[in-house]
Protein: UDP-arabinopyranose mutase 5
Organism: Vigna mungo
Amino acid sequence: MRTKPPPSLLSLTIDSAVLNLSDISDLSSIPDHILLDLFLRILRAGKLTEKVLRLFIATGKDEVISLVEALNIRHVLTPVLPTIQGVLKNSEMSQAVINDNEVDIVIGALHADLTTFMNEWKPIFSRFHLIIVKDPDLKEELQIPEGFRADVYSKADIERVVGSSSSIRFSGYSCRYFGFLISRKKYVVCIDDDCVPAKDNAGYLVDAVAQHVSNLQTPATPFFFNTLYDPFRKGADFVRGYPFSLREGVNCAVSCGLWLNMADLDAPTQALKPRQKNVRYVDAVLTVPARALLPMSGINVAFNREAIGPAIGPALRLTGEGKLRWETVEDIWCGMCVKVICDHLGLGVKTGLPYVWRTERGDAVQSLKKEWEGVKLMEDVVPFFQSLKLPQSATTAEVCMVEIAKAVKEQLGKAHPVFSQAAETMVEWVKLWKTVASG
Amino acid sequence: MRTKPPPSLLSLTIDSAVLNLSDISDLSSIPDHILLDLFLRILRAGKLTEKVLRLFIATGKDEVISLVEALNIRHVLTPVLPTIQGVLKNSEMSQAVINDNEVDIVIGALHADLTTFMNEWKPIFSRFHLIIVKDPDLKEELQIPEGFRADVYSKADIERVVGSSSSIRFSGYSCRYFGFLISRKKYVVCIDDDCVPAKDNAGYLVDAVAQHVSNLQTPATPFFFNTLYDPFRKGADFVRGYPFSLREGVNCAVSCGLWLNMADLDAPTQALKPRQKNVRYVDAVLTVPARALLPMSGINVAFNREAIGPAIGPALRLTGEGKLRWETVEDIWCGMCVKVICDHLGLGVKTGLPYVWRTERGDAVQSLKKEWEGVKLMEDVVPFFQSLKLPQSATTAEVCMVEIAKAVKEQLGKAHPVFSQAAETMVEWVKLWKTVASG
């Protein structure tokens, strides 16, 4: 057995100095080679205050000043530890403190019987406020079990708020947008009603809401890729070569979750591989780099409504769209808009955890026979968004949406009538947002 | 117990048709609603030949033609199944067939006793040819166990090949570049001599070489982010919304692996968190999107030497650089060059699996006292590479490297003398590559 060597006299002296920091008013007598050790020991002990920092900087030693710069330690008005990403994040930031009053769960009810869905989610959802929006096409009465703080909105409620003259269609999966509109919370989490909580690799139930909120509360890093994924997760960090000036990150506006069991495939892929299931639980969250587009799925998503709310709205709607995810591209279009806007406004989009367990529904071969439009439209949609540049004058999500609508009308309008329709819906949505959501 | 319902007559008829495909010469009599089912059944059975494809296209049915287009099925000269990414990949591509003669393992020996290192890697390395380059600064004789096909290169060999007039320094970690230069193989895998094989979440030994080669042999997808990570892995796929026209992907030129136990941190981070270990095995490979930079680590990396060889060379060398990874930025600089070049040439860079187990070595606090240059230089290096545009005329890795060297000299040369030196080394490296590697 290896026994630990006894501490050196120097080490004991430094420990003692850390303990008696308040008595030290001058560091000039401390030899250079001890100074850095002492500074690191203080940092690790979480004892760096404004006063102590001033003492170290007063030594004028290059090594210390470089370390202060590299770790992005700054003077602030209140005594404080080094920046979150430098020292504190592992112990604090990763365990996001969730304020129940800052979160709305929005559920678009495409099926009348929500009993199983709600009961499965009970351990996770019951502490939050729920906004359940009933698909206006759904005739039956909703069945919602007891034990939730839920507000339910039906066709009549939508019409009362939106008005009857609106051309925005909140039917099918788009009914969730009404929930986003009437929410008054900072964070919105939205999960399709054919999903139940997933389990992680260790067999534990995944708290999708906590993970989404943690993703949104910790910074995103879109300007440089970190090979160990989200540096703000417990146990992770920025790797060698990651510029210190970019380690502060930016606010995260969108958190895209994933799916176990039934993956979110398009109808042709699903039809071809009816038995393929997604079984790989990838234990990672990452920021999608700036200028890279992703297919944001509406199945399991969360966003900072205050930061980006109006950018998450209805727009593209296929003519033959049904009540199956693989028949829609509304969320994919929405994701293109929101990613371009986040890149423009300097906000982040994360993807990865949390997973949800997605159950089987529908027949992809039947969808194939019915609907091909969505897959084909993507060939125009992606190059459009890849080359889209928003004007510097667009500094809010609202203005960005109107600018995108303008560009859609000009550049895509001739390709297919659904694009002109999408542009009009976007403009109308922004108007509605200004009236309802800011009201 | 649920019993499967008996097959329908229609289903049996289609099955029979699939079995007797060769007898069918005309599909015009088949009702529309059966045609698509039959086509899908043929695809799944892997029986789509050129002749059968022609039969289906001859029907002129929109549904079938759309499916052919969407799945990117093309006429080719030899009878063939639909494109790899459409159907075949899950059964074939993911299990990369590795030709031993296409792979060189390059080891930079910074330590004389390679016994443990080599023995640990024996199950994985022994079938491949090894190029072991001894750090020219290392005085002791190398100790290499039996059972390998290894060529060992020492200072004298380097001088004989490179010449004595060369200013390129192949010492320290840079000795591995000499191995890249003299390799004649398509793929090069390079792993630091303080790493041993890692185990995956199930406790199985990770075959890092097989994973690297699989990453390099399957396409990369830099132009659109796939939320289920590498779509070419077994069980994975392209998600809904991923444009079909981009599913073919591009050639992958670089595979960056990761590290368990000791992560690849810089000296300040390591000094601050001496006890932090990377314990999260993230079971994913992903393409780093085009125009996003990453800190490519030299610890565990592989590349397609034919595609990008000259772009992986020595350049930036810190004046106080030692024999510890956290004291170097040579690989980080190299990674910036190669990513910019891959983006320019339409090649892909992947990161993620395989992991290696990295053992402890050195004292980060001592490195902190000695060397700060690297961390500071990144603040100039990253913006430079982020804004770098290579001319359209640069169509090879060699020409791209010379163009980057030119820009480095012009734009960074004044900031610090190491940059001018890096630019000169890059030009000299390309010359050397042309003489030696293409010789």
